[in-house]
Amino acid sequence: MALIHLIASIYTNFLTFLGQVALLAWETISSIGGGSIRIRLVLKQIAEIGYRSQLVVIVTGAFTGAVFTAQAYFQFASLNMETAVGPVVALSMFRELGPTLTGVMVAGRVGAAMCAEIGTMKVSQQIDALRALAVNPVDYLVVPRALAMFVSMPFLVVECVGFGVLASYYTGVQVLNIPGVYFLANIQKWTDSSDIVMALVKGFFFAGVIVFISCREGLNAKDGAVGVGRATTATVVNCSLAILISNFFLTMALNIFFPAG
Description:
It is built from nine helices and no strands. By secondary structure, it is mainly α. It is elongated.
Protein backbone atom coordinates (compact mmCIF):
# COMPACT_ATOMS: atom_id res chain seq x y z
CA MET A 1 0.00 0.00 0.00
CA ALA A 2 2.86 2.37 0.77
CA LEU A 3 4.32 1.76 -2.70
CA ILE A 4 0.96 2.37 -4.37
CA HIS A 5 0.53 5.57 -2.36
CA LEU A 6 4.01 6.74 -3.38
CA ILE A 7 3.37 6.08 -7.07
CA ALA A 8 -0.02 7.80 -6.90
CA SER A 9 1.56 10.80 -5.16
CA ILE A 10 4.29 11.13 -7.81
CA TYR A 11 1.75 10.82 -10.61
CA THR A 12 -0.55 13.42 -9.01
CA ASN A 13 2.31 15.86 -8.43
CA PHE A 14 3.46 15.44 -12.02
CA LEU A 15 -0.01 16.15 -13.42
CA THR A 16 -0.35 19.15 -11.11
CA PHE A 17 3.00 20.46 -12.33
CA LEU A 18 2.01 20.07 -15.98
CA GLY A 19 -1.34 21.74 -15.33
CA GLN A 20 0.25 24.72 -13.62
CA VAL A 21 2.80 25.18 -16.40
CA ALA A 22 0.08 24.94 -19.06
CA LEU A 23 -2.14 27.40 -17.17
CA LEU A 24 0.72 29.87 -16.83
CA ALA A 25 1.47 29.55 -20.54
CA TRP A 26 -2.19 30.18 -21.39
CA GLU A 27 -2.36 33.24 -19.11
CA THR A 28 0.83 34.60 -20.67
CA ILE A 29 -0.40 34.10 -24.24
CA SER A 30 -3.74 35.70 -23.31
CA SER A 31 -1.95 38.71 -21.81
CA ILE A 32 0.19 39.12 -24.92
CA GLY A 33 -2.89 38.84 -27.11
CA GLY A 34 -4.61 41.45 -24.98
CA GLY A 35 -1.77 43.91 -25.54
CA SER A 36 -0.38 43.81 -21.99
CA ILE A 37 3.22 44.36 -23.10
CA ARG A 38 5.72 46.59 -21.31
CA ILE A 39 8.29 47.35 -23.99
CA ARG A 40 10.91 48.71 -21.61
CA LEU A 41 10.82 45.56 -19.49
CA VAL A 42 10.97 43.39 -22.61
CA LEU A 43 14.09 45.20 -23.87
CA LYS A 44 15.69 44.88 -20.44
CA GLN A 45 15.06 41.14 -20.43
CA ILE A 46 16.37 40.76 -23.99
CA ALA A 47 19.64 42.31 -22.82
CA GLU A 48 19.74 39.98 -19.82
CA ILE A 49 18.69 36.80 -21.61
CA GLY A 50 20.12 37.27 -25.08
CA TYR A 51 23.08 39.61 -24.90
CA ARG A 52 24.59 38.31 -21.66
CA SER A 53 24.13 34.66 -22.60
CA GLN A 54 26.17 34.91 -25.78
CA LEU A 55 29.56 34.06 -24.29
CA VAL A 56 28.50 30.82 -22.61
CA VAL A 57 26.56 29.73 -25.71
CA ILE A 58 29.44 30.51 -28.09
CA VAL A 59 32.01 28.68 -25.94
CA THR A 60 29.70 25.69 -25.58
CA GLY A 61 29.02 25.49 -29.32
CA ALA A 62 32.64 26.00 -30.35
CA PHE A 63 34.15 23.33 -28.12
CA THR A 64 31.31 20.90 -28.82
CA GLY A 65 31.95 21.25 -32.55
CA ALA A 66 35.70 20.89 -32.05
CA VAL A 67 35.59 17.77 -29.87
CA PHE A 68 32.89 16.14 -32.01
CA THR A 69 35.06 16.75 -35.08
CA ALA A 70 38.04 15.10 -33.43
CA GLN A 71 36.04 12.06 -32.33
CA ALA A 72 34.39 11.67 -35.74
CA TYR A 73 37.75 11.97 -37.48
CA PHE A 74 39.34 9.27 -35.32
CA GLN A 75 36.51 6.88 -36.23
CA PHE A 76 36.18 7.76 -39.91
CA ALA A 77 39.94 7.77 -40.57
CA SER A 78 40.05 3.99 -40.23
CA LEU A 79 37.50 3.79 -43.06
CA ASN A 80 39.19 6.43 -45.23
CA MET A 81 36.10 8.66 -44.88
CA GLU A 82 37.70 11.73 -43.37
CA THR A 83 35.80 14.08 -45.70
CA ALA A 84 32.51 12.85 -44.19
CA VAL A 85 33.38 14.52 -40.90
CA GLY A 86 32.14 17.95 -42.03
CA PRO A 87 28.53 17.06 -42.90
CA VAL A 88 28.19 14.73 -39.90
CA VAL A 89 29.21 17.47 -37.48
CA ALA A 90 27.18 20.15 -39.27
CA LEU A 91 23.99 18.07 -39.33
CA SER A 92 24.44 17.12 -35.70
CA MET A 93 24.95 20.74 -34.67
CA PHE A 94 21.96 21.98 -36.66
CA ARG A 95 19.50 19.25 -35.81
CA GLU A 96 20.44 18.14 -32.30
CA LEU A 97 23.45 19.46 -30.43
CA GLY A 98 23.06 23.17 -31.15
CA PRO A 99 19.46 23.66 -29.98
CA THR A 100 19.71 21.17 -27.11
CA LEU A 101 22.96 22.46 -25.65
CA THR A 102 21.80 26.05 -26.02
CA GLY A 103 18.59 25.19 -24.19
CA VAL A 104 20.41 23.45 -21.34
CA MET A 105 22.95 26.25 -20.92
CA VAL A 106 20.29 28.97 -21.02
CA ALA A 107 18.21 27.00 -18.52
CA GLY A 108 21.17 26.89 -16.16
CA ARG A 109 22.05 30.54 -16.54
CA VAL A 110 18.78 32.37 -17.24
CA GLY A 111 16.16 29.96 -15.92
CA ALA A 112 17.77 29.80 -12.50
CA ALA A 113 18.02 33.60 -12.37
CA MET A 114 14.37 34.01 -13.35
CA CYS A 115 13.22 31.59 -10.70
CA ALA A 116 15.41 33.12 -7.99
CA GLU A 117 14.24 36.66 -8.75
CA ILE A 118 10.54 35.83 -8.90
CA GLY A 119 10.82 33.43 -5.96
CA THR A 120 12.44 36.10 -3.82
CA MET A 121 9.60 38.47 -4.70
CA LYS A 122 7.11 35.75 -3.77
CA VAL A 123 8.52 34.91 -0.33
CA SER A 124 9.05 38.60 0.50
CA GLN A 125 5.39 39.32 -0.41
CA GLN A 126 6.27 41.71 -3.23
CA ILE A 127 3.96 39.80 -5.58
CA ASP A 128 1.12 40.28 -3.09
CA ALA A 129 1.94 43.98 -3.13
CA LEU A 130 1.64 44.00 -6.93
CA ARG A 131 -1.81 42.46 -6.66
CA ALA A 132 -2.75 45.05 -4.03
CA LEU A 133 -1.79 47.74 -6.55
CA ALA A 134 -4.01 46.07 -9.21
CA VAL A 135 -0.98 44.90 -11.21
CA ASN A 136 -1.25 41.42 -12.67
CA PRO A 137 1.96 39.51 -11.75
CA VAL A 138 1.81 37.56 -15.00
CA ASP A 139 1.64 40.77 -17.05
CA TYR A 140 4.46 42.40 -15.10
CA LEU A 141 6.82 39.47 -14.47
CA VAL A 142 6.15 36.65 -16.92
CA VAL A 143 5.15 38.35 -20.18
CA PRO A 144 8.37 40.43 -20.59
CA ARG A 145 10.50 37.39 -19.83
CA ALA A 146 8.54 35.19 -22.22
CA LEU A 147 8.74 37.65 -25.10
CA ALA A 148 12.44 38.25 -24.49
CA MET A 149 13.12 34.51 -24.38
CA PHE A 150 11.20 33.84 -27.61
CA VAL A 151 13.13 36.63 -29.34
CA SER A 152 16.57 35.74 -27.97
CA MET A 153 16.61 31.96 -28.09
CA PRO A 154 16.66 31.49 -31.90
CA PHE A 155 19.59 33.92 -32.19
CA LEU A 156 21.47 32.06 -29.46
CA VAL A 157 20.86 28.77 -31.26
CA VAL A 158 22.23 30.27 -34.48
CA GLU A 159 25.35 31.46 -32.64
CA CYS A 160 25.89 28.08 -31.01
CA VAL A 161 25.55 26.23 -34.32
CA GLY A 162 27.59 28.77 -36.29
CA PHE A 163 30.55 28.75 -33.94
CA GLY A 164 30.30 24.97 -33.64
CA VAL A 165 30.64 24.59 -37.40
CA LEU A 166 33.47 27.16 -37.55
CA ALA A 167 35.34 25.35 -34.78
CA SER A 168 34.73 22.08 -36.60
CA TYR A 169 36.24 23.51 -39.79
CA TYR A 170 39.30 24.85 -37.98
CA THR A 171 39.85 21.58 -36.08
CA GLY A 172 39.29 19.40 -39.14
CA VAL A 173 41.26 21.42 -41.68
CA GLN A 174 43.98 23.14 -39.65
CA VAL A 175 44.59 20.53 -36.95
CA LEU A 176 43.62 17.19 -38.51
CA ASN A 177 44.61 18.09 -42.09
CA ILE A 178 41.31 17.25 -43.77
CA PRO A 179 41.21 18.91 -47.24
CA GLY A 180 39.31 22.14 -46.76
CA VAL A 181 37.67 22.09 -50.20
CA TYR A 182 36.10 18.67 -49.64
CA PHE A 183 35.16 19.61 -46.08
CA LEU A 184 33.14 22.63 -47.20
CA ALA A 185 31.78 20.97 -50.34
CA ASN A 186 30.32 18.07 -48.38
CA ILE A 187 28.76 20.42 -45.83
CA GLN A 188 27.07 22.37 -48.63
CA LYS A 189 25.94 19.14 -50.28
CA TRP A 190 24.38 17.50 -47.24
CA THR A 191 22.91 20.49 -45.37
CA ASP A 192 20.12 22.77 -46.53
CA SER A 193 17.53 25.23 -45.28
CA SER A 194 15.44 22.50 -43.62
CA ASP A 195 18.26 21.90 -41.12
CA ILE A 196 18.27 25.60 -40.21
CA VAL A 197 14.49 25.62 -39.82
CA MET A 198 14.65 22.56 -37.56
CA ALA A 199 17.22 24.24 -35.31
CA LEU A 200 15.12 27.40 -35.03
CA VAL A 201 11.89 25.51 -34.32
CA LYS A 202 13.56 23.56 -31.54
CA GLY A 203 15.08 26.73 -30.11
CA PHE A 204 11.69 28.45 -30.09
CA PHE A 205 10.05 25.47 -28.35
CA PHE A 206 12.83 25.20 -25.75
CA ALA A 207 12.39 28.91 -25.03
CA GLY A 208 8.82 28.22 -23.93
CA VAL A 209 9.91 25.26 -21.83
CA ILE A 210 12.53 27.32 -19.98
CA VAL A 211 10.49 30.45 -19.33
CA PHE A 212 7.26 28.79 -18.21
CA ILE A 213 8.90 26.20 -15.96
CA SER A 214 11.20 28.83 -14.44
CA CYS A 215 8.41 31.32 -13.77
CA ARG A 216 6.13 28.58 -12.44
CA GLU A 217 8.75 27.48 -9.90
CA GLY A 218 9.36 31.08 -8.86
CA LEU A 219 5.68 31.88 -8.42
CA ASN A 220 5.23 28.75 -6.29
CA ALA A 221 8.27 29.29 -4.07
CA LYS A 222 7.67 29.26 -0.32
CA ASP A 223 9.44 28.84 3.04
CA GLY A 224 11.78 31.79 2.68
CA ALA A 225 15.33 31.63 1.39
CA VAL A 226 15.46 27.84 1.71
CA GLY A 227 12.38 27.54 -0.48
CA VAL A 228 13.88 29.85 -3.11
CA GLY A 229 16.98 27.66 -3.20
CA ARG A 230 14.88 24.54 -3.67
CA ALA A 231 12.83 26.19 -6.42
CA THR A 232 15.98 27.31 -8.24
CA THR A 233 17.43 23.79 -8.13
CA ALA A 234 14.12 22.34 -9.31
CA THR A 235 14.07 24.84 -12.18
CA VAL A 236 17.44 23.77 -13.57
CA VAL A 237 16.67 20.05 -13.17
CA ASN A 238 13.14 20.22 -14.57
CA CYS A 239 14.09 22.47 -17.50
CA SER A 240 17.03 20.26 -18.45
CA LEU A 241 14.98 17.08 -18.27
CA ALA A 242 12.09 18.65 -20.17
CA ILE A 243 14.44 19.81 -22.93
CA LEU A 244 16.11 16.42 -23.28
CA ILE A 245 12.84 14.49 -23.25
CA SER A 246 10.93 16.83 -25.54
CA ASN A 247 13.89 16.91 -27.93
CA PHE A 248 13.31 13.24 -28.75
CA PHE A 249 9.66 13.77 -29.63
CA LEU A 250 10.44 16.96 -31.54
CA THR A 251 13.08 15.13 -33.55
CA MET A 252 10.67 12.34 -34.45
CA ALA A 253 7.94 14.80 -35.43
CA LEU A 254 10.09 17.34 -37.28
CA ASN A 255 11.89 14.69 -39.35
CA ILE A 256 8.53 13.96 -40.96
CA PHE A 257 8.40 17.51 -42.33
CA PHE A 258 12.15 18.18 -42.60
CA PRO A 259 13.90 14.91 -43.52
CA ALA A 260 17.69 14.94 -43.39
CA GLY A 261 19.49 15.27 -46.70
